[in-house]
């Protein structure tokens, strides 16, 4: 992973798309652009023209080696990445956003994405990002990496509701959903709903990751 559980950077080799070399590069395999915006999909397709085979729209019959997912927000991003991985577990997934969005990037990398690209990048930078990610390396624009290095602020738990914070405090104590429901006089299904909502706010996938975030506040 590109990020530690507490949101800081691991000492892992990564490549900046701005610095990726074009000489000696190898074109990636088929690329599937999973994007509901025709103009964005067209722009990404043009950036890859002449370099590889590009598919847009529904999942292609051919198995893509790279997948570009257009994301507007965190909600649903993990499911989209998981869907891409089901088509090809070894596919390198890159998430495209209209801007450098730190919470979105963190969620993308935690969910298994290999790269984060955005609308401020040039076509050549996007193409190089796909090539580098296809080789199994992490790809991020320089300004995003610099921002991550300079801003390791804890997650703002104030974005959680009072009930969500109560539930998470019990999770940190190691209580099960049934035990939390008993403590708060709520149904177990209601506890699950509060947890799912809290996961989205924190950008985590499960109760263990949520507990680590709360402990590290």
TrEMBL record:
Alphabetized InterPro entries for the sequence: CheY-like_superfamily, Sig_transdc_resp-reg_C-effctor, Tscrpt_reg_LuxR_C, WalR-like, WH-like_DNA-bd_sf
UniProt entry keywords in alphabetical sequence: DNA-binding
Example of a GO MF term: DNA binding
Residue ranges, annotated region (Disordered): 1-29
Coiled-coil residue spans: none
Record GO biological process: regulation of DNA-templated transcription
Gene3D superfamilies attached to this UniProt entry: 3.40.50.2300, Winged helix-like DNA-binding domain superfamily/Winged helix DNA-binding domain
Domain of life: Bacteria
Residue intervals of the HTH luxR-type domain: 153-217
Cross-referenced CDD domains: LuxR_C_like (cd06170)
PANTHER family: NITRATE_NITRITE RESPONSE REGULATOR PROTEIN NARL, TWO-COMPONENT RESPONSE REGULATOR
Name of this chain's protein: HTH luxR-type domain-containing protein
Source species: uncultured Rubrobacteraceae bacterium
